Amino acid sequence: MPRHVRGFDAQAAHAHLSRTCRRLGAWMKRVDRLENGPIPNDPRWRGRFDPVDALARAILFQQLSGKAASTIVGRVETAIGSARLHHRTLGGCDDATLRACGVSGNKLLALRDLAAREARGEIPDLRAMAHMDNDAIVAALVPIRGIGRWTVEMMLMFRLGRPDILPVDDLGIRKGAQYVDKLEAMPAPKVLAQIGERWGPYRTYASLYLWRIADIAEGAAKPVNRSQG
């Protein structure tokens, strides 16, 4: 099975999309002017990365502001005496201690499920993921309580640097595609999947621009950071 390296050449992706999709290419030029250049390679593609820790943090960040979630994560790290969240460190804290950190009941159940699955060897580590395709990683992780496809797609894009991910359920992506194709409404996920075929094999890079396009078109241009941990 081929090995998947983390990350891809953003410059090559930019050139490909600009050449093969006129409408997206025009919007990319607009984004580049506003942001003083094309979207670069993400440094997280080369950073240290623990899938279980990242999933635990994703669970804790769900439905909270960044500040509130960061506060809770900091409390959990203090409670477990470690900066790494996994089955051994989380297992050292009882439920009451984690709840006192601000972890909700549902999130506590999700953390316990994640830890139990890791202990049973059900969560692929980074080395194993390097030999798994995107669908296999999704299939391995979405059974975890509290982890949906979108969360795994963010991991694939921002931490594993997989080049051809299009999160078709993401409202920002759908809104960006609406502006690119001048549609009356956001495309449905299945329609967006069909539209997105023209952006392969760099649908991840197209997605980064679609988020920016949606922000610009809505008059709220700002940097996008879709991944926690």
TrEMBL record:
A molecular function (GO) term: DNA-7-methylguanine glycosylase activity
Enzyme class: hydrolase
Source organism phylogeny: Bacteria, Pseudomonadati, Pseudomonadota, Gammaproteobacteria, Lysobacterales
PANTHER family (alphabetical): DNA-3-METHYLADENINE GLYCOSYLASE (PTHR43003)
Catalytic activity: Hydrolysis of alkylated DNA, releasing 3-methyladenine, 3-methylguanine, 7-methylguanine and 7-methyladenine
Protein name: DNA-3-methyladenine glycosylase II
InterPro entries registered for this protein in UniProt: Alkylbase_DNA_Glycosylase/TA (IPR051912), DNA_glycosylase (IPR011257), HhH-GPD_domain (IPR003265)
EC number: 3.2.2.21
